[in-house]
Amino acid sequence: MEVEAANSPEKSSSIRVPHKWAAVVWLCGPISGLLVQPIVGYYSDRCRSRFGRRRPFIAAGAALVAIAVFLIGYAADIGVRSGDSLHKSTKPRAVLVFVVGFWILDVANNMLQGPCRALLADISCSDTKKMRTANALYSFFMAVGNVLGYAAGSLKNLHKVFPFTVTKACDMYCANLKSCFFISIALLAILTVMVMVSVREKTMPSRDEKGEGGVRFIGEIIGAFKELKKPMWILLLVTCLNWIAWFGCLLFDTDWMGERGVWRCGRERASVRHGS
User: Fold this and answer.
1) Position with higher pLDDT, 153 vs 205
2) Are 102 and 181 within 8 A, CB to CB?
3) Residues 214, 46: contact at Cβ < 8 Å?
4) pLDDT digits (tens, 9 = 90+) for 70-83
5) Rounded Cα–Cα distance for residues 230 and 144 (Å)
6) Strand, helix or coil at 11?
7) Which residues fall within 8 angstroms of residue 221, CB to CB, at 6 or more apart?
8) Residues 84/40, Cβ–Cβ less than 8 Å
9) Model's pTM, two decimal places?
């Protein structure tokens, strides 16, 4: 996820995604988090697959992430093969592929993370000590992933490991992003296979539950909101305001640093040298 967050702004700039579309592209994250995770959690809790309740959703989410990352990485190449001109700055077909891939990635990421957290709770077997340890390790490795994901965007010669990533539609910087995405797909595939093979879930017995489905799901969500106490509502409000602030920063900080900070500073230094 952090490889996406660190490199997607640069990728969108390379194919000239209009700034007015940027908010629409990133809007998928909150929407998918609002809709996908509760729905996946609901049906995952009631899954009766012989592979377990969580692992089928984890595998499906990982597969969708791989497809989405491929679309994002090869958006420029697909756009050119579909009719985009190499000589025009804006590539509409590449932008479309990028947006579709980005939305699939956000949906798949939410589809993947929810069952992963639920799987931790399942294998902890309601043991408080195990639950604390599992949450601590989950947060630790998420932080490690944040550091490595953002650091991956600073590597300049990564494309030399995957020389086929450099094409007519994709220069060296674009190829570096592709290479980051390839590495992320490989790591995700390895870790997903490890989870599927090493973790054992208890198969839930089949039950005939009448009245289940979308209507009951929505009813349970509304009922849960009605039962919340005032401190919980305050916590939800603080969390909402926090995410509003965070997404505003996440969306525009890269452009601000590149176009208003580094680029302007370099231009001013060049003008001073020229004047002197």
Assistant:
1) 153
2) no
3) no
4) 888 888 888 888 88
5) 35
6) helix
7) 38
8) no
9) 0.73
